[in-house]
Amino acid sequence: MYQSLLQDSRYFDLLLKLDEDLAAEARRAGCACGGALHSARYERKPRGGPAGLGPGSTVRFSFCCEREGCRRRVTPPSLRFLGRKVFFGVLVLLLPAMRDGPTPERLNRLCERFSVSVRTVRRWCRFWRETFVTSRVWQAARGRFATPVRAEALPGSLLGAFSEISDPESRVVAVLRLVSPIGTGQVRAF
């Protein structure tokens, strides 16, 4: 069910559009000092995206305050990038979730298909189960769920917590929205 999302360039275009909306919101809000924000976006070299991604898919939106003496950088949340991770965030979310169910052979096929080493997927699992659970993002969000999310089963249990959303695309977007503050510089989770 989730594998098709990882190979769908239209889904990555949707994530780009949602990031553009988040960037526009951040720009409208302006700097904390009251100054206007100017574009200071930069290119990323993310791995793991499907073929056919547009040129804008690698841009990380960011802004810089116009006021001399402030020049504070504002980096809005992103649904495409999870902090400093090299791979697209949707892979960092879904491959560990898919890893929990498959046999070792299936895990090897998944890793081969998306050009990710098994070791990297294991490191992502540790990130979700050890680092993420101690982050301020998770500490603030975990109380929002009616049924507790099991830390030892993250990120799959987090996807399961959004089971009221039947569409897999929308469910993944909801989880990415929840964890998106990780890459803003406002929350230290890495």
What secondary-structure arrangement, pairings included, does this model have?
Layout: H1 3-6, H2 9-29, E1 37-39, E2 42-43, E3 59-60, E4 63-65, E5 73-74, H3 89-99, H4 104-113, H5 118-131, H6 136-141, H7 156-161, H8 168-179
Antiparallel strand pairs: 1-4, 2-3, 4-5
Description:
The two termini are 29 Å apart. Helix content is 44%, strand content 6%. It has helices at residues 3-6, 9-29, 89-99, 104-113, 118-131, 136-141, 156-161, 168-179; strands spanning 37-39, 42-43, 59-60, 63-65, 73-74. It is mainly α and 190 residues long. The chain contains eight helices and five strands. It is globular, with a radius of gyration of 17 Å. Strand 4 and strand 5 form a beta hairpin. The mean pLDDT is 88. The strands form two sheets. The chain has a three-stranded antiparallel sheet with strand order 1-4-5, with helices on one face. A two-stranded antiparallel ribbon has the order 2-3.
- Helical segment count: 8
The helix-and-strand class reads: mainly alpha
What would the average pLDDT be, to the nearest integer?
Answer: 88
Taking pLDDT < 50 over at least 5 consecutive residues as the criterion, the unreliable ranges are none
Number of strands: 5
Basic shape: globular
